[in-house]
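Schema walkthrough. Field components (list of strings):
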Amino acid sequence: MSPRLTAAERMTRLLAVIPWVVQQQGAPIDEIVARFDYPRSQLVEDLTGVVFFVGVHPFTPDSMIEVDISDDEVQISYADWFSRPLRLTGSEGARLLTAAHSLLGDQSWAGGDDEEAGPLLRALTKLSMALGEAAEGAVEVRLGDAGRETLVPLRSAVSRQEQVDIEYYTYGRDELTQRIVEPSRVFSDNGNWYLDAWCQRAGAQRVFRVDRIRSVRLTGDVVEQRPTDPAGTFTPGENDPRVVLRLHPDSAWVAEQYPTESAKTDEASYSTVSMAVSSVGWLERLMLRLGPSAEIVAIDAPLSPDLVSEAANRVLERYR
Amino acid sequence: MDKLERLLNLTAALLDTDRFLSAEELRRRIGGYPQAKASFRRTFERDKEDLRNMGIPLRVESIAGSDPPIDGYRILRSEYAGRDLRLEPDELAALHLATSIVRLDGGETGLHKLGGASSSVEAAEVGHVPFNDNLATLIAAAAERRAVGFSYGGVARQVEPWRLSFSRGHWYLAGWDRRRDDQRLYRTDRISGAVEPLDGAVQPLGTPTDPTRLKGWELGDERPVTVRVAVDEDQAAYLHHLLGEDAEPHDETGTPTGVVTFEVRNREGFRSFILTFLEHAEVLAPQQARDDIVDWLEALT
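Field assembly_structure (string):
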């Protein structure tokens, strides 16, 4: 949470804080701070320096909001205009629905246990009723393809800090390997589940696609303490060469799908993006797929400036 | 006067009134606006825009009897406040947990409006799901059974959305395409420009296609073509992993082979798929599909 809120953020929060405090007939400052992500000093400043002066014409005492803060307890009265919170916008409703469905779709979280998912299901029903007749089935989210039989033991290994023995299918190399790993985190990104772990076989921190893990066995051995660097796995390597692409509007999805380091769009909706290249094959695949709708503007050594035509010629060899 | 104070006073005045108020009346009632006419106008326009961006339903109507007509403004309380969801504390906490565990790109969730949630729930983020304004519009339209318009593949579409599904890194829209008079599935990241809300849906809600069962080369309107493809032996298992049960991949002994046959309804999707194998794959038949790949690649050399 950023320490300073924008005027719009303060306004939308106040429009929620005021009816809530009125309904509660007063509330401790700290609870308002926590519930509404409102930095304490700013909240006090806004209540005493702004809300206190809000009212309607002719701004006589009886036509103004009354705010009283004493013993860290806030009382608000005469705020009839703001007695109900502002309705949810379609966009906010869509986001809430999506977040709730994402969590429900993560079966390893709910543990298939209705009791744990109960409050979320009830909230979802109430939310759906408010958002529209067909809201209940309007969204579906799959955080990844991995099954409970893999996710559940991995999650418990993370929380118990236990080493696991996995069978892993390596992409592109078409081989199944067995390795002992020390899991630090299970997470989903862009529709796939990943395991962040120290791999004893590689002697390094690695990220594994959970749907390529064929089996998991908890070893009972506790992980060795070592500094983990979860950020290092998804941010591009500092030493990776960079490529700058100019993308036709049809290929704008590239900027959304891959981590870009800079992106700008011109008046004709062409965008120019800079990305780290972790493997030559990845860039070759991308460029051959994009074809004429993408162009390399700049590329770091050791990547070849003629990377696209070289790759195209290698594929064409098969057809000659 | 602080801008926040002026906006709150403006909102209070617009909610308090039982008739439409002109800009001039609002200027006199609220105070804090610049005196000069031009700069007042500019500030007032910005304030209206700010209120709308916050989702405050500002109504504009010509003031009765004004000639020439003067715009009047007010906010109806019934439109301002949402339906009270009457969420129990544990339900609110569950929604809070969901929004902290799953990160959606950009935008607020409006959880504050429901009363916020005590931060007793400490949860680490476990998932990230891409999200944008078009998705929000599509989901709201599906929920409210309204049609939308957008441009897809260079063609203007009118669609009645049924369901938005996120699967394997992509959002899919399933719904009824009015112009094609049939059910369709779209990848939302291929929509160009903004999605515009239209009128109410007419077709009954159908059963949405499950996007996980569809492959890129099946997402299309083209006449189906059966293609035969060969991949290097060491890529065979991966190819079969991708194709699932759709191909005829096994030889007489049941061993996966590197030569498969399947149906294509989207040539662009097929081309992308084949090219992900780089020089480790080749289209064998039909000749037309082979030529397409060769032409595409020769243009890049």
